[in-house]
Amino acid sequence: MPLSPTKSLKILRILALWEGFSYLLLVGICMPLKYIFNIPEPTYPVGLAHGVLFVSYCILVLVVTLQYKWSFKTMFLAGIASLLPFGTFVADKRIFSQQK
Description:
Elements: H1 5-35, H2 43-68, H3 72-81, H4 87-94
Helix pairs in contact: 1-2, 1-4, 2-3, 3-4
InterPro entries: DUF3817_TM (IPR023845)
Organism: Roseivirga misakiensis
Pfam family, one: DUF3817
């Protein structure tokens, strides 16, 4: 049973926040621990979680794009947001929260 557009968008917004937090945790905490303090242990589980969240986010952006008939530009910006620090938070505020 496919998700309704409203439910998909709600899941995307939650996933965007989790993906953004995992990215900041990975880049802001785990990578300095690994490369500055020689503590590599947290990098693998956080990196794995971030990878799963990133792929899930990208797939869900495509699903929501089809459901809401977003333009290529909107889809592109939502996708690029996952590559920038704080990008998914901005996308949530400027793109996802504006959808009805």
